[in-house]
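Objective 1.3, modelling of assemblies. Example input:
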Amino acid sequence: MLKGILFALLGGACITLQGVANNRISYDIGTWQAATITQLTGFILAAIVLAFVRDGSWKDMRQVPALYWFGGAFASVIIFSEVTAIQYIGVTFTIAMLLIAQLCMTFVIDSRGWFGVLRRKITVPQCIGVGLMIAGVLILKL
Amino acid sequence: MIMGILLAMVAGALVSLQTIFNNQVNARAGSWATTTLVLGMGFIASFIASLIFEGSGTFSLQHMKPWYWISGAIGVGVVFCLVQGIKRLGPTFATSIVLIAQLSTALVFDTTGWLVAQKIALTPGKLIGVLVIVVGIIVYKFGDRWVGKASRNKKPATSHTLGQ
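Predicted structure (tokens):
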């Protein structure tokens, strides 16, 4: 349990660290280049881990509908947008808006059952949660 | 300001979409095969975008510092931590902690000015704003369970319960 919490905390911290690191790198070599380098080194490292772990066969990839292979491609726009947003409005505001948009999008996709997601109704607590997050951002910017 | 907000929201919407796409891959292939594919696709897309928008500037990397090369390792560390966290805590609890950690870390970077262009002072207002967002995340993730429990216990979910 404690170990799980530590992993989750570290994972979340690293997500933000990655955005900030990309922001720093972009000053020196450009934003698209920063995205390219980060994804390339990440890809190489993941491929090495995959070679050792062998957790799932690549053959199974054939069973994945081709559309979903390209999810990773969104990363280029995500990194570019996040890095540029950090330059305009700072890290906290950027991450706050990013999380709100992320949860709202998940909300919409869940409620429509798009992309093979199990259809779920939007519930009152979810609306209150998003409402509170928006209120928080407003307080943040007061 | 508006530009920054819009870009952050585009990023957030795409993170949601990407997570769903990746989960579809993950459901059939293993998590490391998925990660390798996702980062490989990210590299190809970024490289193409870089060629389109920066042209030959894509290859002018004279200002590279050595640590830039290993920045991608952070992403691999993220996947490892998330997989471990979700395995031990389940997705709802784990992602709540992840989201809260993301936001708290952001506050640390702004306050210390580490790796960012400008330091942003930590005011009581900022702290309260972040805390309210954290409460919002918890209500979003766990609200259903509380309401479910409360109705099973024939106790209505009061706003007090939701606001904890």
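Residues 17 and 62 of chain A are 34 Å apart (CA to CA).
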